[in-house]
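Lab meeting, item 3. Inverse folding demo.
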């Protein structure tokens, strides 16, 4: 079956047919195609373009089509695309029901595959995003739960991958929590953008029959109708917003994976990856590799690639439907599938992460308190730029003498600055350093508790 051909004298070149076939991937939209058809035939009935008997026949036919499409194993479909397949199957179903197959031909009245394809793609994406958002919520929940139990685990915080200042492990987990929270907000916004109904735009100029687009939207679960028929069939920015949100999410998950991989290495040893999320080596028996995290990091490449792919496709297209737009589906499907694979693994890894407090503590060296030393003198009225210099010189002095900074005597410290007195000994305490950072968002216990509360309300 072909949905066009009257104007053609020659058959389509088989190689063009092969190039143009999208059934292999757009068959995923089959059930949505049926659902939209069902709503549409009701509209045709409401305006008298089909009678009650025809509506019933088409509706029953669509139910049969639905059953066929959801059968396992899935049916072989060799049509140009899923819309063609559904029309063909509907004709066959109506014959099965003892009806006149030409009734099926009334269904596409006033409608084009352009507005149909865009509508079902939007519906598909809206529900795929819902699922991704549910995964993100679970991941956030796990991060938050783990944060609650790791607020006393002191470890170095890093910049340039060099030890910077003492923090608590919860602060890292919460850092990921907030990044994912923004990702979730981006997905939700993208979903809202999907829910504007193109159906009724026809090929480009609108529907010549007075179907009620608002009612169609309502029946199908859209929030409203697209305001412009040309925009409705041309635009794919809703899909790009999704791909972009997914690519950004990917970069967040990838950075997080990188942290966890490093921290789980023997060199750091701060955490352990549960065996159920690690794999072995076919050659080296001792290995437990963090493949799950590596794959999360690796899959980010395709998430970014899918965004680039569709951006490149739409750039420079004339306004209106162009067949290029058929290339919108595979990158989106691939990103949806990738998220479905990656997110549960990330969640599982976070939930089962082992925390090695001793190793974290052991990585705390006194040089991490150099900033605190400088700030100690600030509290005594010395300008920070001077105290920064003084603290640096104290570290040099300790290195010269081959001792740790707390081992320097008060006399030695006073050689560097006479602002030092006995109270300096209070500086050499990692927990105290953390407690000094008590402004909102900081690592002090009070600030962390506040942050956890804020995170809880972000989830509710
Ligand atoms: N398979 C096509 C797509 O996904 C359906 C629309 C075809 N429209 C057309 N005018 N050839 O874009």
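The presenter then showed the designed sequence:
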């Amino acid at each position: 079956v072909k949905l066009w051909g009257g104007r053609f004298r020659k058959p389509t070149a088989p190689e063009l047919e092969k190039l143009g076939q999208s059934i292999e991937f757009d068959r995923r939209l089959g059930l949505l195609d049926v659902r939209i058809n069902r709503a549409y035939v009701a509209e045709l009935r409401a305006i008298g373009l089909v009678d009650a008997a025809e509506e019933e026949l088409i509706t029953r036919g669509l139910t049969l089509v639905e059953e066929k499409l959801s059968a396992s194993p899935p049916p072989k479909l060799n049509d140009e695309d899923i819309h063609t397949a559904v029309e063909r199957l509907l004709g066959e179903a109506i014959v099965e029901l003892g009806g006149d197959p030409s009734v099926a031909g009334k269904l596409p009245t006033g409608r084009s595959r352009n507005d149909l394809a865009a509508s079902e793609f939007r519906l598909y994406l809206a529900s795929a995003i819902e699922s991704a958002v549910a995964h993100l919520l679970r991941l956030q929940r796990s991060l938050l739960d783990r944060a609650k139990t790791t607020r006393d685990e002191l470890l170095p915080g890093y910049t340039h991958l060099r030890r910077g200042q003492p923090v608590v492990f919860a602060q890292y987990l919460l850092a990921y929590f907030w990044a994912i929270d923004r990702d979730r907000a981006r997905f939700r916004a993208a979903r809202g953008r999907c829910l504007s109904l193109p159906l009724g735009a026809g090929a480009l100029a609108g529907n010549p029959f007075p179907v009620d687009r608002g009612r169609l939207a309502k029946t199908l679960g859209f929030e409203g109708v697209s305001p412009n028929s040309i925009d409705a069939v041309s635009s794919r920015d809703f899909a790009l917003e999704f791909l972009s949100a997914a690519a950004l999410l990917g970069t967040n998950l990838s950075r997080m994976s990188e942290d966890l991989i490093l921290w789980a290495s023997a060199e750091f040893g701060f955490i352990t990856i549960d065996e159920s999320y690690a794999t072995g080596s076919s050659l080296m028996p001792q290995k437990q590799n963090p493949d799950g995290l590596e794959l999360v990091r690796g899959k980010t490449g395709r998430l970014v690639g899918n965004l680039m792919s569709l951006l490149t496709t739409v750039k420079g297209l004339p306004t209106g439907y162009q067949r290029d737009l058929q290339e919108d589906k595979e990158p989106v499907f691939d990103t949806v599938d990738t998220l479905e694979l990656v997110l549960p693994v990330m969640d599982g890894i976070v939930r089962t992460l082992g925390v090695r407090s001793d190793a974290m503590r052991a990585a705390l060296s006194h040089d991490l308190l150099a900033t605190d030393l400088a700030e100690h003198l600030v509290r005594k009225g010395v300008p920070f730029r001077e105290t920064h210099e003084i603290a640096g010189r104290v570290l040099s002095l300790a290195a010269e003498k081959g001792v740790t900074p707390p081992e320097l005597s008060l006399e030695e410290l006073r050689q560097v600055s006479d602002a030092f007195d006995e109270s300096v000994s209070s500086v050499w305490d990692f927990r105290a350093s953390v407690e000094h950072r008590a402004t909102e968002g900081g690592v002090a216990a009070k600030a962390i508790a506040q942050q956890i509360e804020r995170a809880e309300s972000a989830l509710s």
